[in-house]
Amino acid sequence: MLTRPLHPSHKAPEIREIRISRDGPGQNTWRWSVWQGSILVTRSPAGFAGPKAAYEVDRRVLIR
């Protein structure tokens, strides 16, 4: 397969990473966040009971 290099005026799309992490002790302390490189793009407005719950909400909210 042949590929053509990008024109200098075109930028490659920046990769966004979705992270699910614990925000503190207790219940509802898991949150999702979207990162672009080292910059925080957005974060879940509320905590969730566990990583699976955060992932499920993430799927419904972010993947539209």
How are the SSEs ordered, and which strands pair?
Blueprint: E1 16-22, E2 30-36, E3 39-43, H1 51-62
Antiparallel strand pairs: 1-2, 2-3
What does this protein structure show overall?
By secondary structure, the chain is α+β, with helices and mostly antiparallel strands. The chain contains one helix and three strands, in the order βββα. The longest helix is centred in the C-terminal third of the chain and has 12 residues, at 51-62. The radius of gyration is 16 Å and the shape is elongated.
Question: What descriptive keywords fit this protein?
Answer:
single chain, 64 residues, alpha+beta, three-stranded antiparallel sheet, 3 strands, 19% helix
As a percent range, the share of helical residues equals 10-25%
Structural class, from secondary structure content? alpha+beta
The largest sheet has its strands arranged as 1-2-3
Total DSSP E strands? 3
Number of separate domains? 1
Instruction: Sketch the topology as an H/E string, one letter per element.
Output: EEEH
Mean pLDDT: 75
Please work out how many helical segments DSSP would assign. Answer: 1
Q: Which regions contain 5 or more consecutive residues with pLDDT less than 50?
A: none
- Largest sheet: number of strands, sense, barrel closure: 3 strands, antiparallel
**Radius of gyration from CA coordinates:** 16 Å
Question: How is the quaternary structure best described?
Answer: single chain
